[in-house]
Amino acid sequence: MDILDTSSHSKEELVRILSKELEKNPLIILTGPQGGGKTTLAIKLLSENVGAYFEGRARSAQPAVLIRKDLVEKMKGELYEKRRLPISESDEPEYVDVSIYDQIKFLVENIFDVMELGEPELIRQMSLVTKKMGIVPKAIELIASDEELVKRRLSRHLDAKERLSSLVEKEKKYGIESNLWGIQGARITDIINREGIADYDEDQISRTIKDFDRIIPTKGMNLIECLIEMIEISNNENNESGFLVLHSNDGEHIISDIVVGKGANSLIGVTLLEVYVGFRQNRSLYRAYKHAKEGKIEVIHSYTPMLQEIEYLANPWIPPSAIEIPIISTADITAADRFDIMVSVIGPDGKVESSSKKRKKELEEIVQGIIVEQEKE
Q1: Please, what is the average pLDDT of the chain?
Q2: 249 and 189, same structural domain?
Q3: Which pLDDT does position 94 carry in this prediction?
Q4: Are 223 and 136 part of one and the same domain?
Q5: Alpha-carbon distance 247 to 293, whole Å?
Q6: Which residue among 76, 143, 156, 350 is least enclosed by CB atoms within 10 Å?
Q7: Would residue 204 count as lying in a domain?
Q8: What is the pTM of this model?
Q9: 275 — pLDDT class (breaks 50, 70, 90)
Q10: What is the number of other CB atoms lying within 10 angstroms of the CB of residue 69?
């Protein structure tokens, strides 16, 4: 797979480089972490030479698939299989013709949105489908420095409506088929007619800086200072907040700012991971996502009763009881396993829960020390 560092080139240079690749390769798959530039560059590449542009729509970094117009026409004329319909009104089975083009669309959305099998599997299966046509998909990984990726993720909502508007305009101008309904912070209001661009609804979780009340820089701060800040926010504002810690062979390091949430859509853990780390689908055993950091990532966030108790009480599988509601949610525990991370939760009173028993004991000692010092003051 070719690798292109997007932090080393201007957008104009990148478009020229990728345009030349599209001239030589009729099917291009852009992969890479969130903020690498896949969607932005794919939209800029759309022209009269492009027939289709697809992305997976599930959470995590999605590959962008660009298919040249001449190949789209050939794919639509090539039969992939006669697929049996699962429901038939007659006694005899009914079949529908599935073209190679139909199968490519199916793979993009099924592998990522349903099965979450990851980029390598998508490339492999697409290659098998196009092999009979003598076409080999060209995969290009778009990367950038960590600093550049975080900067882009924090500002991606600013031009979201502009990028979507450009997409819709080019679709109609050049007759391009696309499956995008929205990108972080903006959405297409009429997905049937592909018309109208708007901000995310208030009840949608965009996972952008718009979901934050504020960001507190952690440069120069240690773990204890970050925990003190987080507990004060819990007690004074009743807002959820959190930050990331990387545990590696050379110690533990704070690798994010402190993010303070706002409103009922506060998903601090997910937002932190997507902004400061970026996860990519690459199924391994039972885990569907992976990160590029060396070491173990820990999400530390506060316990906000209004948010987490409502979630707990709204679960129809949990009967009403007098049992104390746990401060670590089922979503936290599931995420710890799914993403191979630790999740630790700190209550405003200093109570600690963690997906790791060892880490829970460590944090309990640290938080107790903080409380003792505060009482002395």
Answers
A1: 86
A2: no
A3: 83
A4: no
A5: 10
A6: 76
A7: no
A8: 0.83
A9: confident
A10: 17
Beta strands in the chain (DSSP E): 2-5, 27-31, 50-55, 64-68, 79-84, 95-99, 138-143, 177-178, 182-183, 186-190, 195-199, 212-216, 241-248, 251-254, 258-261, 280-284, 287-290, 296-302, 342-346, 352-354
Q: Compute the distance between CA of residue 292 and CA of residue 66 in angstroms, rounded to an integer.
A: 25
Per the CB < 8 A criterion, the answer to whether 181 and 57 are in contact is yes
pLDDT, greater one: 67 or 1: 67
Question: pLDDT tens-digit profile of 293-332?
Answer: 788 999 999 986 655 555 555 555 555 555 566 788 777 8
Q: Indicate if 42 and 115 belong to the same structural domain.
A: yes
Same domain? 189 vs 267: no
Query: What single string gives the DSSP state of each residue in 259-325?
Result: EEE-STT--HHHHHIIIII--EEEEETTEEEE---SSEEEEEEE--HHHHHHHHHH-TTS---SSPP
d(CA 167, CA 366): 51
The residue type at 228: I
Count up the domains in the chain and report the number.
2
Q: How far apart are CA 275 and CA 28, in angstroms?
A: 26
Q: Which of 329, 282, 314 is nearest to 111 (CA)?
A: 282
SS3 215: strand
Strands across the sheet with 2-5, in order? 2-5, 138-143, 27-31, 64-68, 50-55, 177-178
Distance set, CA 232 to CA 115, 264, 346, 367 (Å) = 41, 20, 11, 12
Q: Which two tokens stand for residue 238?
A: 């009743």
Determine the pLDDT at residue 305: 64
Rounded-to-integer distance, Cα 350 and Cα 156, Å: 35
Asked if residue 286 lies in contact with residue 116, where contact means CB atoms within 8 angstroms, the answer is no
